[in-house]
Amino acid sequence: MGFALNHFLHFLLLCLSLLLNHQSSSNSTATLGIEPSELRALMELKSSLDPEGRVLSSWAVGSDPCGFEGVTWNEHGKVANISLQGKGLIGTILPSVSGLRWLSGLYLHYNAFGGEVPRELASLTGLLDLYLNINNLSGTIPEEIGTMASLQVLQHCYNQLTWSIPEAYPPSWVC
Ligand SMILES: *[C@@H]1O[C@H](CO)[C@@H](O)[C@H](O)[C@H]1NC(C)=O
Ligand SMILES: *[C@@H]1O[C@H](CO)[C@@H](O)[C@H](O)[C@H]1NC(C)=O
Ligand SMILES: *[C@@H]1O[C@H](CO)[C@@H](O)[C@H](O)[C@H]1NC(C)=O
C-alpha cells in the first residue's frame, strides 16, 4: 500500500516536472527529461503497433509524454508499462520494442496484432508481465522467452502460436 502510494506520488511528480519543463521551453524533446532514445523507440513502435495511426496519435514528439495513451513512465523518465489492451489495434510487434529497456509490463491483449513474437523481447531483463493473448499472432514463441528470468506472467493463448519448449513451461504462463 505504502509502496503503491509512493510510486503514484513519484509518477505525479514526474508528470508535474515534465509539464513545467514543457511549458518553459519551446524545445520540448530536449527539455522533457525523457531520453531521446526512449522517445525514438516509442515512435518506431507506434508505426508498427498502429500503422494506420488511428489509436496512438497522442504518441507524438513534442507532446506531453504523460498524455501518451497507455504509456506509464517510471520516476526516471523511462517507459515502464505499455497498456493497450482492447484498443482494436491491427499492427505488428517490431523487434524495436527491445529498445525500451526499462519496460516491466507489456499489455497488448484483446487486439488483432499479426505477425510473429519478436525474439528481441527476451533482451528486456526487467519484463515481468507479457500479455499477448487474444490476437492473431503466428509462428513459434521464441525459445529465448522461455529462459527469461524476470518474466512472471506470459499470456499467449487465442493466437495461432505454437510452443516449442513445453518442459520449461512455468505455471504462471497461462492463457
Ligand atoms: C532542440 O534541441 C535539439 C537538441 O539539443 C537541437 O538539435 C534542436 O535544433 C533544437 N530545436 C529547436 C527548435 O530549438
Ligand atoms: C506497471 O504495471 C504493473 C501492473 O499493473 C503495476 O504493478 C506497476 O506499478 C506499473 N508500473 C508503473 C511504473 O506504473
Ligand atoms: C490473421 O493472420 C493471417 C495470417 O497469418 C491472415 O491471413 C488473417 O487475415 C488474419 N486474420 C485477422 C482477423 O486479422
TrEMBL record:
It is found in: Membrane. Keywords: Kinase, Leucine-rich repeat, Membrane, Receptor, Repeat, Signal, Transferase. GO terms for molecular function: kinase activity. Residues 36-72 form the Leucine-rich repeat-containing N-terminal plant-type domain. Residues 1-26 form the signal peptide. GO terms for cellular component: membrane. Pfam families: LRR_1, LRRNT_2. The keyword Nucleotide-binding does not apply. This is LRR receptor-like serine/threonine-protein kinase GSO2. It comes from Iris pallida (Sweet iris). The lineage of its organism: Eukaryota, Viridiplantae, Streptophyta, Embryophyta, Tracheophyta.
